[in-house]
Amino acid sequence: MKGYRLFTPGPIDIPEDVLSATAHKCIYHREEKFRILLNNITDLLKKVIDCKYRIYFLTSSGTGAMEAAYVNIMSKSDSPVIGVCGKFGERWIELCKSYGNDPIIIKQDFGKPIKPEMIEQGLKRAKKPIVVFTTLTETSTGVVNDIKAISELVKRYDGYLVVDGVAGVGADPFYQDTWNVDVLSGASQKALMAPPGIAFVSFSQHAQEKMKISDLPKYYFDFSLYEKFLKNGQTPFTPAITILYGLKKGLEKITNIGIEENIIRHQKIAEYVRNRFIKMDYELFSESPSNALTIIEMPAGIDSTDVIKECKEKYGILFANGQGEMKGKILRVGHMGNYNIKKLSQVLDILEKVMANKLKSKPSRR
Question: How confident is the model over 137-146, as a mean pLDDT?
């Protein structure tokens, strides 16, 4: 087998025109052409995420954006509230440990969304200034959280809300300014349809004020340095220039479809996938499923590791396994960005056949 097609929850199957855009001749990041490129990307992204204030671009993974968001909003004396419903939400806890902050952890069962009233319990216990960290779309469990309702609560307590939107932005509804989200971290390789390598963090003006007094150690992720270079349409360090061209093309594709129309497109695809699985008599794992991916629970005696291996090696299709304690117990199908119902129909036919064969060959109990 020469290769395989990605049906994982990131990175995704990248459109050919986006890949072609990354073959652009490399330009110098201190010249006018780069300023124009960065400004164009900024304007497009602001439309997609509903942000009118400030976006900083990084050459990093999505986790780099999370860490950058963390160190620029937090101070040593802060005790944040962290809403967790999966492995990526736990990453906020790991950042707390790395920088010596003592968090109030609000943990939901995997597969269930974080209820706003759970966050409020943390808000009641937190000392000011209150910073809340959570996740828009948790790709380890397929859950999308009600960020709008959570934000309304956080504002009632005069706090700051920081959201990991790496997987959800572009697939699930998200409106930074309208919902009063203070900080958003995102990346290029999921619903924005570009290759991995570029991450971003967007700040509200409210959060920018707290950023000025942040005293956590930072260098590469120090946004006060990024702010100085941003005035000239530059980044302080050499960026992944060719990936930026790909990101620009991905954002153009989204805006050409239409911001709302693109969300509706993802919703229809997600509904199709979920309905197919229900007809196959498989249990959906998430109680609040994202438009970005669908997760099913594996039947007793069937390990998703074996199913994924056969689909990849025999049919050239790659799905994703569960993470941590969920490995082998669930199967994750990504459908954010460059996917359509026709393409998913074909791969679900294959998955259905592989699963059926596994069930037939499963030893019967005596």
Answer: 97
Q: 106-133, pLDDT tens digit by residue?
A: 999 999 999 999 999 999 999 999 999 9
Total number of domains in the chain = 2
Query: What 3-state class would DSSP assign to 166?
Result: coil
Distances (CA, A) of 246 to 14, 198, 240: 10, 10, 10
Do 180 and 274 belong to one domain?
no
Answer yes or no: do 132 and 40 share one domain: yes
Using CA atoms, how far apart are residues 227 and 302, in angstroms rounded to an integer?
A: 52
pLDDT exceeds 80 at position 365: no
- CA 261, 184, 247, 145 torsion-angle sign: negative
Closest CA to 120 of 78, 87, 92, 83: 83
Q: What are 29-45's pLDDT values in tens digits? A: 999 999 999 999 999 99
Q: Which residues of 271-299 are buried (b: 16+ CB within 10 A; e: fewer)?
A: ebbbebbeeeebebbbebbbbbbbbbbbe
Strands (E), 182-261: 183-187, 198-203
Q: Domain check: are 349 and 288 in the same one?
A: yes
Burial environment of residue 120 by CB neighbours within 10 A (0 to 12, 13 to 18, 19 or more): middle
Are 18 and 193 spatial neighbours (Cβ–Cβ below 8 Å)? yes
Global pTM reads 0.96
- The answer to whether position 366 is within a domain reads no
Q: For residue 366, what pLDDT is reported?
A: 38
Print the domain residue range for 217. Answer: 16-256
Exposed / middle / buried, residue 27 (Cβ in 10 Å: 0-12, 13-18, 19+): middle
Considering the chain, what percentage of its residues have pLDDT values greater than 70? 98
